[in-house]
Amino acid sequence: MFETMIEMFSYPFMVRAFLVGSLVALCSALLGVSLVLKRYSMIGDGLSHVGFGAMAVAAALNTAPLAVAIPVVIVAAVLLLRISGNSRIKGDAAIALISTSSLAVGVMVISLTTGMNTDVYNYMFGSILAMSAEDVQLSVILAIVVILLFVFFYNKIFAITFDETFALATGVKANLYNTLIAVLTAVTIVLGMRMMGALLISSLIIFPALTSMRVCRTFRSVIISSGVISVVCLFVGISVSYLYATPAGASVVMANIAALVIYSVIGAVREKRGLGG
Q1: How many angstroms separate the CA atoms of 65 and 44, rounded?
Q2: Banded model confidence at residue 128, pLDDT cuts 50, 70, 90
Q3: Dihedral angle sign, alpha carbons of residues 17, 19, 24, 30
Q4: Confidence band, pLDDT 50/70/90 cuts, at residue 217
Q5: How large is the greatest C-alpha to C-alpha distance in the chain, in angstroms?
Q6: pTM passes above 0.85
Q7: CA nearest neighbour of 103 among 93, 95, 113
Q8: Which of 24, 78, 88, 240 is surrounded by the fewest CB atoms within 10 Å?
Q9: 18-27, 78-87, 107-116, 205-214: lowest mean pLDDT where?
Q10: Residue 201: what pLDDT?
Q11: Sign of the dihedral through C-alpha 268, 221, 252, 106
Q12: Is 263 exposed, middle or buried (0-12, 13-18, 19+ CB in 10 A)?
């Protein structure tokens, strides 16, 4: 086992995958708790489709994918909030509207230009080989910024997560912090797409939060537990991907599913003992 670990970390692409993957998993877990509690968890799925469309356009124009995708997805995230909050198109309908439109644009651009090549497959399903050294540098910087901003505004995020009306009454600028969450989520989604793929990246937002809520009862404990679970499942998933040549994104999701099952059993046992006592 120890020799296998040394062998894995002897490859630069595995080091890049673990480094970026761990940071993205941590960002996703932190933001995912608020998104799940606010019943807005599917925003990750919608934004990932926007990211796919942006990356398809970047590939057609032969430009850096992250440089194009990040600003486009941030704009989409802010627009999504505005559409959902200020019009008759609410929540899931707004997400479906933007995500399907972006996916259609991406597919049309691909069909008219590069076709279904390896890069497109990687965008859809993820690959630990997809990240260049430049991608890693940008991803690490942006992921650290996301984590620092979340920690710095933790109290405000906590306030708007549990009672946005009360937060507004106490002077908290709820719209500003909702926008901050959306922007941070957009950046995290784009960073994780290269490894997890557009179809699976939203799992990093949803699974750790739901898993932690099976056992933990306070916001802070759920946040900490989600971060730990997300990073551990990322590590397990990439290791399985390396050992058995399975897709990285799917392997990470399977690890998260296993964690959800284990925590659900623990939570059920605790609840049964509590009722029995």
Answers
A1: 18
A2: low
A3: positive
A4: confident
A5: 66
A6: yes
A7: 95
A8: 88
A9: 78-87
A10: 86
A11: positive
A12: buried
Q: What is the Cα–Cα distance from 107 to 55, expressed in whole angstroms?
A: 11
User: Do 234 and 22 meet the contact criterion of CB atoms below 8 Å apart?
Assistant: yes
Residues 6+ apart with CB under 8 A from 99: 45, 46, 47, 48, 49, 50
Tokens of 142: 């942006």
Q: What is the DSSP letter of 62?
A: T
Query: What gap in Å lies between CA 251 and CA 91, rounded to an integer?
Result: 30
DSSP label at residue 1:
-
Cβ–Cβ < 8 Å for 46, 83: no
Reduced 3-state DSSP string for 170-194: CCCCHHHHHHHHHHHHHHHHHHHHH
Q: What is the pLDDT of residues 46-104, one digit of tens each?
A: 888 898 888 888 878 888 778 888 899 999 988 887 776 655 666 677 788 888 888 88
Please report where in the chains the tokens 């600028």 appear, as a residue.
173
Structure tokens at 48: 């990932």
Question: Rounded distance, CA 5 to CA 173, Å?
Answer: 47
